[in-house]
Amino acid sequence: MKQARDRYKGFRRRVYLVLEGGPAHGTLGALIEVFLIVLIIANVVAFTLQSVPSIREPYWFDLEAFEIFSVAVFTIEYVLRLWVTIEDPLVAVQGRWKGRLSAALKPTMVIDFFAFAPVYFTVFFPFLDLRFLRMVRLLRLLKIARYSPALSNLGRVLMSERRALVGTLLLIICTTVFAAAAMHAAEGAVQPDKFGTIPGSMWWAITTLTTVGYGDEVPVTLLGRIIAGCTMVTGLGILALPVGIVANGFMNTIHQREFIVTFGMLARVPLFKDLDARLLGEIMNVLRSQSVSRGTIISVKGAPAHAMYFIVSGEVEVELASRRVQFGPGDFFGELALLHDTHRRATIVALSNCRLLALSAEDFTTLTRKHPELRQHIAEAAKEHLARAGRGDIASVEIAAAAQRRYEYREDD
Questions:
Q1: Residue 213's CB: how many other CB atoms inside 10 A?
Q2: Is the full-model pTM beyond 0.70?
Q3: Domains, the chain, ordered by start
Q4: Which residues contact 37 (CB under 8 A, 6 or more apart)?
Q5: What's the Cα-to-Cα distance from 321 to each of 32, 96, 326, 409, rounded to whole Å?
Q6: Exposed e or buried b per residue across 93-111, where buried means at least 16 C-beta atoms within 10 angstroms of its C-beta
Q7: Of 23, 315, 274, the residue nearest 333 (C-alpha)
Q8: Which residues contact 96 (CB under 8 A, 6 or more apart)?
Q9: Are 172 and 236 in contact (CB under 8 A)?
Q10: Over the stretch 71-128, which tens digit does the pLDDT of each residue have?
Q11: Contact 130/118 with Cβ under 8 angstroms?
């Protein structure tokens, strides 16, 4: 019985890693991700082609068959994701059913649900006019955000910059009201049907501030034209604010995170295996992901230590004084320089295209001060890591020498 339960949990774990890890979990994960992305795009294309009579009428059977196939795939995907979500440490601490319920309410899972649910409504309630629900199928396009770092990061940027964006929105509302009031005062008596009230003038103010200018409402007096000119110039400046805020935050986030960090990726790093779920969540929030191409020098011997790295996929080579050591998926490097405040003691080169998770020195210091047990955990893991790499006690000598050189360097400064 226990063996069957262990096999069940092991299978669920593998499914979780394949679905959540994607390409980081090997060929199968990469193939499934590519298949789902292609299916999502094909669904949107099929939906739009259904509106063309010359295509819909001769190919209606093929389009309906493809729709049934797509719904089946999306349903299976949703059920599997809901089943394996218990492998997420932050979900597991809430319990099986409560955790799955909270996972089902996440934005990505809600989108996944509405990607197939409207079809079931049309099947079970054919007497209702559910044309609007069929349009909800376009939400399938939003499923691609799960696999797109850019779209996921855009949501993160909007959340982090929400205060600035709300402030900008209030400024736009105030400007709209002032412009409408000014135009009502200038043109209300001349064009009472268009500017006779402030609420009625707001349509003109909105189209003018956004520089759309439909031309259905235009000032005819000199004062009205002056107000319109000032409103246009003001609109250009105000509307540029949210664009600049989002663009700046988006570019900064994209440069920091080249792919999405998930628990599926962290699960491939043994160092994180026994950590508390909440601590693991804190670590995940500060990790910065990056892709490194083959032959890239990740760190140079003697350089200051800015981060430690975890390998999600690919291999790196550590060039020591007397030999070379190779690290692969699940391994980590750069921890000694952070633990002992030294410079890099080796040059590290990517042997293949790698996906790395970087923990900056600042975040490392913050986390280890807040959670002293994390520092101890990394130190013990580093000891085992060195032993497996065959570096033995040489590391302690190198660390002491590097620390001494760093001290002398500071004294010279």
A1: 13
A2: no
A3: 2-147 (1.20.120.350), 162-256 (1.10.287.70), 263-412 (2.60.120.10)
A4: 144, 147
A5: 43, 51, 14, 21
A6: ebeeeebbeebeeeeebeb
A7: 315
A8: 86
A9: no
A10: 899 999 999 999 988 877 667 777 778 888 888 888 888 888 888 887 787 777 666 5
A11: yes
Copy the structure tokens of residue 139. 């939400």
For the sheet containing 324-327, what is the strand order?
Answer: 297-299, 347-350, 316-319, 324-327
Angle at 123 between CA 122 and CA 126, to 5 degrees: 65
59 Cα distance to chain centroid = 38
